[in-house]
Amino acid sequence: MLFNSFPFIFAFLPVVLVGFFVLARVSDRLAAGWLALASLVFYGWWDARYVALLLASIGTNFALGSSIARQRESRGPQGGRALLAVAIVVNLALLAYFKYTLFFLANLQALTGHAGPLPDIVLPLGISFFTFTQIAFLVDAQRGLAREYNFTHYTLFVTWFPHLIAGPILHHREMMPQFRQRATYTLSWENIAVGLTMFSVGLFKKTVIADDMAGFATPAFSAAAAGTPLTLLEAWGAALAYTFQIYFDFSGYTDMALGASRMFGIVLPLNFNSPYKARSIIDFWRRWHITLSRFLRDYVYIALGGNRKTSARRFANLLATMLIGGLWHGAAWTFVVWGGLHGIYLIVNHGWRSLRSRLGLASLPGGRALATLTTFVAVVVAWVFFRAPDLATAGNVIAGMAGQHGIVLPLHWQPSAEGVAAWLANHGVKFAEMAHFNRVAQSNWLCFLLAICWLSPNTQQMLAAYRPALMTAGYGELGSAGYLTWQPSVVWLSALVPLGLVALVSIHRYSEFIYFRF
Amino acid sequence: MRARTFSLTYGGVILLLFGSFGLFNLIVDPFWFFREVEIEGFNRDKPKAPGNERLVKPALVAKLRPEAVIVGSSFAEIGLPPLHGGFTRNGRLASFNLGLPAATWNEVYCLAMFTLRQPHLQRLVVGVSGVDSGPCPTDDQLAKADYGKLLFSRTALDASRDTLRRQGGVQAMTREGLWYYVRYDADLQTDNEIVGNFALEFRRALCPSADELPRPLDSTRITKAPLAAGQAAGLRNLIRLALQRKVELVLLLYPTHVLFNEIVRRCEGPEGHWNWLWQAVAVADEETGGLSPLIQVWDFFGYGPQNTERMHAGKPMRERQWQDFGHFNEEVGAAAFDAIFLGDTRYGTRVTVANFDQVVARTEEERRVFLAANEWVLPELSELMRRARALPPTAPR
DSSP state, A99? Predict the structure, then answer.
């Protein structure tokens, strides 16, 4: 079931919400069980067969986690490490089977030149998310950080429908106390109002902005995949359209997830904090998919040794972590390159920081804006690999962005450029009808969205006074939204009604969230 | 404002507006699906029904349960009249045109199979442009209307608004699904404009050998070898299902304009049309064990008066028989239906294995006589090729 669908908005969500608070009057346990059951229905809506897989994964991990915790309790800090290793291997094997078997076999066939039929493996929805969530639980159990072992709460922690399919990746210690609190089971109109606001804003971002951007990005990337060389403007138009599509898609999903959860009184961790405002790639990863970033930091980068060894080792750890992060997103070389690029960006970023501090270089005037712009361009280039179906397509788009396929401007601009026409022609610039760049709508949208991403506060900042999300230490704080600070008022109501209505009537274009694929 | 008031007001207003929105689209009914309210000057004309056929037409076949249906591409949608007296047995059969613009053969095949499975169907005309079959959506998927899009979408709202604004103009489509296409387009009336429209369609058929005079027909190049069991599976499935359901099935090869015939003759060879007509005829013969009154193959390729209208006819579009070389108007379709359902022998031929060779020979003779008597054909062809080649590669329609 999709958040951006009528069955979810007008049937599933209200029924589950009402049922929850009615049952909560009888028993907290019953209400928690209702939410777990509803979450399984939510998951099963896609394909009921995989509910069994999800339940098996939950049952196995709960049993393993409990055993690991008992071993640690009886044998001290080293207790349960062997079992933890086994448990992680089991989880990764499941993920590897469903997500990477085809990739592995296809590459093996390509290497050996022996083509054969590939098995028909369907990737269960959200497997990367519920696997990582549970690996974190197992590690926390061994570290003595996961203290509560209530099966209903654990099932709810893993299956909680707002996060199940596309995150945020939850920490046991963040969620279990909320499931235990009596306040969670008491209807709060403030939670409903905050949740409705976040959900509506998220829906608007998804159905209006992200889906419109897809209308520009998809045809251009399809053309590139079909071998059409994209010219400079077309290639940048496509890359930027996808840059904003994925931003508003994921940001919209996150707002909806946090909003839906908040209506039930359950606060999810912040996952998205205006990433295109980042002044460096390090900063970007503290703002983009924060819960994945912290997972990779806590359970991969630190496990590999982090920055405790030499600089070279640290950089190698960074690269390895980002390559794993890339592969986590999908079993394709394009994701590996995307992860690798971000790994290299991070190495350059850390290297530059260290060099700057060693040389004692001061900030230049306009340096912040330049840093934001540089980071943004680096991110845009990397998104091309993330979006492209294969490396050849990515290469086509990147070549276009570098001007390798010529510079063509819209024919409509020719009269305005008459004064410089000769100069442009001498530099190889042509005017023609452009098949993959919409001169008016795309240009206007891209400029508008860039301004929004760089200048406006985000949803969580607007709602900061109402604790819209759990904050993660080391991942920044929510700044103030100034005069855009949300409060239950007539003004906000007047703004939200048209926004919600436009978002609702834009739902008809069925489109999954990009992160559902991971 | 208290959070409770905020939440309840927000939810209430959204529900109210959203419901009103749906009700508005239901009443205006821009895609002609609900058919609950139809008021002259308010919503009787449906300018936005064309272009949204896929959203409603298959579901309408399940909803309206017509007994006589036409399935095909835009050629069928524009040219085959669902209210033709012969087709509807003088109005005794409820009829519908399930033609879809730019429909591929597989789409037509899937829709025809879906229509054949409808319980009330008695008569089906399929515009044939292929013989094979591919994967199809399920009947449930085809019969299911997307109420979200019909009632609660921006598309529906925009279409409703346009519907209200554009009443009293030229009708775009009939209740039974016949589309008028550009017949009444005010910007497309002079010969010059109409030739431009021909050229747009023509561009796709051009090939490097288009300028050369075609070689004469070589009947030995018409392959009449028996078809293997797996060949032409689409036609076989249609015929078998029609026989099983006792539905009268007409496999109709669309009327083609002489300019199109001539360009195809130059690009695909003079035997192209006959090779694939033979497949259709042979399959029908095999599947019915000879002649069955239920299954008929009709061909409207040729050089008769309905197919030979000049581009430079000095007539406005609304009075013409052809809108471009692929899209014929309902007058041509009516002549075809006269032949099929009323026994008029002046147009088209019911083709069988037995009369196939005669049809080929007769058409060749018709062509010879026609070209000898009509010196305008070759200059018009050259003019059309010149116009088609001069078009920019992505010229909008």
Answer: I
